[in-house]
Amino acid sequence: MKTRNILLINVNWLGDVLFSTPAIRALKRSAPYAGISVLIHPRCKDVLAGNPLIDELIAYDEEGEHKGLMGKLRLILYLRKKGFERTYILHRSLTRALIACLSGIPMRVGYYYRKRAVLLTDNIRPSPNDVHRVDFYLGVLEQSGIDIKEEDRKIEFFITDEDRAKIREILKKEGVDAGEKFIVLNPGANWTPKRWPAENFANLADILLEKHSKKVIITGSSSDARLADDIVRLIKNKPVILTGKLSLKELGALFEMATLVISADSGPLHIALAVGSRAIGLYGPTSTKITGPYRNKDAVIIQKMVGCIIPCYKVDCIDTRCMSAITVSDVLKEIGKNII
Questions:
Q1: From edge to edge, which strands make up the β-sheet containing 35-40?
Q2: pLDDT band at 338, cuts 50/70/90?
Q3: Are 95 and 131 part of one and the same domain?
Q4: CA distances (Å), origin 27, targets 149, 153, 222, 246, 334
Q5: Which domain holds residue 9?
Q6: Number of domains composing the chain
Q7: Distance between CA 280 and CA 302 in Å, rounded?
Q8: Rounded to an integer, what distance in angstroms lies between the CA atom of residue 134 and that of residue 44?
């Protein structure tokens, strides 16, 4: 079946959007002459920017431009003009299914959820919730008849030589010489129970700086600034602080140059792995089976079982023993085996 235009309606979080890139590859391979557009939250556009398989990224700004009835109507009219013939909905959202329906897209494929079933033309039996997110998203395509090849199962994040040049200039200004080895600590996570204690990051940074002469760079979004400050106050030897100073593409370029990236379960961890960096993932309440590194030999996972049910989605949990159980020695042991 030849199709001119296909819309993929994506999910909302950085890591999950990265996990959708195999589905984008599989979709393009199945319809090589079709235009592929992706509807995505504005904060996630940079995750897919530069992907050569995508013809257009369409921002769905629920909190801004497309908030309210009139905003959604503008989006629907735009999608109607595009003349999409098929859409694959990776998101579980009722609203997104309604937008696809009102946009007049004749073939609408997504997982069956009772409240939105009438809005889809092809309701797919949901994959088990405990499969990896990559396979969960690929399942929408696979169960609709698209053959998934092994080469499709690759997470991708694209950076350019311009991104690399920018990060080299930033590092130069921060006193990091060209070719100098460094380790990146990415302490943030989208909810607090996934974060390793600040004092542990500080102790780790001091040991790397003092005993192993490794330059340390701390990264994160602008919302991680307070966390970075907490860590820096506890560090004897000042690291390079790039928290809130980098675009996602510059962050990817930094990770590509790094000797090692150490991070909790977060979007940046998976960006690091996508660009080929070696990484250590610190996992507590989340399941490595669902959101862990996907088929990646360069990833090391540290997770301690402390009697809690995993995955745990208590975002307001104050008993963060699952993360506190990971010691600095645990991390140093893995660094020693893999890096130093």
A1: 56-59, 35-40, 5-9, 86-89, 107-111, 122-124
A2: low
A3: yes
A4: 11, 12, 34, 31, 38
A5: 5-152
A6: 2
A7: 7
A8: 17
